[in-house]
Design goal:
Length: 489
């Protein structure tokens, strides 16, 4: 073994212990010498941890590159035994840009009391910055002179914190792309517009954010912003009665790409009153196509699609779930009373609708095998929420009560799918067909899916499908229809 290396390592270890012997990144409440410092922890993807979340693998940072207009939460932590009296620490804030573009709460001073040893400074942005700027916060004075400002070392004191305002890109999206209404005057639906990177309140203008295609009369208002910078809550109230059961009513609200905000994910919201069809909920057709005892339950499909230049049935599968609805909704059927006498926690499902989704996480399932339709597709639910179609198919039993056969509808809606290159497409889908029990417990759904987008398809295209509720099923015979080819996004 090389003795020179041993000496070098020993010197290095000794120097590290000398520099950080009093450093306390574990926030021990048994510290002999109390100290206060900025305690901003940042994950590897540049996202600050929100107090009281902790991560022992991270150490506080002294600066942060901010690319969001959301309120930035800056925790300040006092490492000390339980306090017998309140402690107040003043801080200063300076900036290289427009001081009116941001505000802070609490102003100038933070406080600690008893076991509450962390306080938070909220840095909010009231204007959009056009050039890179720097905001510096610095701890100035403690009401208890025994408390040191900053860590007990000179390597990383954390007695000041620097926020570097970098280039920011603000986007918005609809977290839900479709609502159904009953058609009663005064009926209200509540929906949100999400802003993943925050928003500036003065920039929110319904006339520039939205394009409308209205099929009925309504009013549209939004709730007060409050301190929230993650989403805006809107309320749509129906101003007329639309009760003709034989007519399909629809209003579309679309987000508009602008210089301030670009669309991501779902960009079109549908509010519809579907044609009413009398059905016996005890038929409960949807129940044949899901099993909630398994979060990974799949239905299995075949899509007539191009395979190396030849039309052929190509297999796919997708996680399949019921469509949850409120109690009292049309065609709602009780799934579980949670074993309690209270009805407040009862769970209801739509007796005739199913959807495709993932049980947890931010990825996507393969609704209608659409991932085969495209190459270069993003499978993130944020970018391509259209791969998860939570309300996809609706069943109409023969005579309203058949438990073995009937018609099926591809629920008309707009889905969004994006490429890994950032290009995003809103695709209108619709279609229909039939379903039937082909052997004991085995159901087959046969239908045509129509998809509309001028940029991708030059208009509207269609494709043939079969979906089964079991992985063992008879292979469909070839058909004579033409088929679609993969498209690069």
């Amino acid at each position: 073994m090389n003795p020179i290396k041993i000496i070098s390592i020993a010197v290095l270890i000794l120097s590290l212990f000398s520099a950080c012997s009093k450093d306390d990144y574990q926030l021990s409440s048994n510290a002999v010498d109390p100290f206060v410092r900025f305690n901003v922890l940042v994950s590897s993807n540049n996202v600050p941890l929100q107090y009281p979340a902790v991560n022992s693998a991270l150490v506080p940072v002294s600066s942060y590159k901010n690319t969001s207009v959301k309120t930035l939460k800056i925790p300040v932590t006092l490492t000390s035994p339980t306090l017998k009296k309140p402690v107040f620490v003043t801080y200063s804030i300076t900036g290289t840009g427009d001081s009116d573009s941001f505000s802070v709460k609490p102003l100038d001073q933070i406080s600690f009391l008893g076991n509450q040893l962390t306080d938070t400074i909220f840095l909010s942005f009231d204007k959009r910055w056009n050039t890179k700027q720097k905001i510096t916060l610095k701890l100035e004075e403690s009401s208890d002179p025994a408390i040191t400002l900053g860590n007990l070392n000179t390597v990383a004191p954390n007695n000041s914190f620097e926020v570097n305002l970098d280039e920011v890109k603000t986007t918005y999206t609809f977290p839900i792309n479709r609502f159904e209404i009953k058609g009663e005057v005064g009926e209200e639906i509540v929906f949100k517009v999400d802003f993943p990177n925050g928003f500036i309140p003065s920039e929110i203008n319904d006339n520039t954010m939205f394009e409308f295609l209205n099929g009925f009369n309504y009013s549209l208002t939004h709730d007060d912003f409050g301190e929230n910078r993650n989403s805006v809550t809107y309320r749509l109230k129906l101003l007329e009665k639309i009760n003709n059961d034989d007519v399909f009513y629809q209003t579309n609200i679309a987000l508009v790409n602008s210089n301030a905000y670009s669309t991501t994910g779902n960009s079109v919201l549908q509010i519809v009153k579907p044609i009413k069809s009398l059905r016996d909920i005890t038929a409960n057709t949807a129940r044949n196509f899901y099993d909630l005892s398994s979060p990974f339950y799949l239905t299995y499909g075949e899509n007539w699609f191009d395979r190396s230049g030849v039309c052929a049935w190509q297999t796919f599968n997708a996680f399949t779930f019921p469509v949850a609805v409120p109690a009292g909704s049309e065609n709602a059927i009780l799934y579980s009373d949670k074993g309690t006498p209270s009805t407040a926690d009862d769970v209801y499902h739509h007796a005739f609708k199913i959807g495709f989704n993932v049980s947890t996480g931010t990825n996507t399932t393969n609704s209608f095998g659409l991932k085969r339709w495209f190459s270069n597709e993003s499978i993130s639910a944020l970018n391509s929420p259209g791969f998860n179609i939570s309300s996809a198919l609706e069943f109409f039993p023969e005579n309203g009560n058949s438990k073995t056969k009937g018609a099926v509808l591809v629920i008309p809606q707009y889905i969004t799918i994006a490429g890994t290159n950032g290009k995003s497409y809103s695709i209108g889908i619709s279609g229909g067909g039939t379903y039937r029990e082909i052997s004991a417990g085995l159901f087959e759904i046969s239908f045509e899916l129509k998809a509309s987008n001028t940029a991708l398809f030059g208009g509207t295209v269609s494709s043939q499908y079969k979906i089964f509720n079991n992985r063992i099923y008879p292979k469909p015979a070839p058909i004579t229809q033409s088929c679609l080819k993969e498209i690069s996004l």
